[in-house]
Amino acid sequence: QVQLVESGGGLVQPRGSLRLSCAASGSDFSIAGMGWYRQAPGKQREFVAGITRGGTPNYADSVNGRFFISRDNFKNTMYLQMNSLQPEDTAVYYCNADITDGSKRWRSIYWGQGTQVTVSS
User: Fold this and answer.
1) Mind giving me the DSSP string for the chain?
2) 96: alpha, beta or left, given left = phi > 0 and alpha = psi -120 to 50?
3) β-pairing, 91-101 with 10-12?
4) Dist CA 39 CA 77 (whole Å)
5) Nearest of 81, 84, 90, 86 to residue 115 by alpha carbon
6) d(CA 10, CA 16)
């Protein structure tokens, strides 16, 4: 019933920037932690960045200092500002969220469908 939708991906030159968004939609739910993962061709899906409900971030070493994660709890939306992009950042980027229903009957990790980021000259 809850859906996560990523947006903002595309083609960008090396050293360029992109801003990804992940919006959660549905009714009567709350979100604890959220995060971004990515999967490059031929590679395993890997953790990129995470953020607690209170806004505390955590980054993979490969993106630390270049990427910045944030969230807007009023909009149920998470963002990933990606700077100094490199060809190695090319991947499908997925958002996930730890979601609980309003009655606290269930709790699940939800995934978005992914958005393609391609860094190339």
Assistant:
1) --EEEEE--EEE-TT--EEEEEEEE-SSEEEEEEEEEEE-TTS--EEEEEE-TT--EEE-TTTBTTEEEEEETTTTEEEEEE-S--GGG-EEEEEEEEEEETTSS-EEEEE---EEEEE--
2) beta
3) unpaired
4) 21
5) 90
6) 11
Q: What residue type is assigned to position 111 of the chain?
A: W
Q: What is the pLDDT along the chain (121 residues), one digit of tens a residue?
A: 899 999 999 999 999 999 999 999 999 999 999 999 999 999 999 999 999 999 999 999 999 999 999 999 999 999 999 999 999 999 999 999 999 999 999 999 999 999 999 999 9
pLDDT at 1: 83
Whole-number pLDDT of residue 2: 94
Any idea how long the chain is? 121
Judge contact between 38 and 92, C-beta under 8 A: yes
Q: How far apart are CA 16 and CA 41, in angstroms?
A: 21
> What pLDDT is recorded for position 50?
98
d(CA 94, CA 83): 18
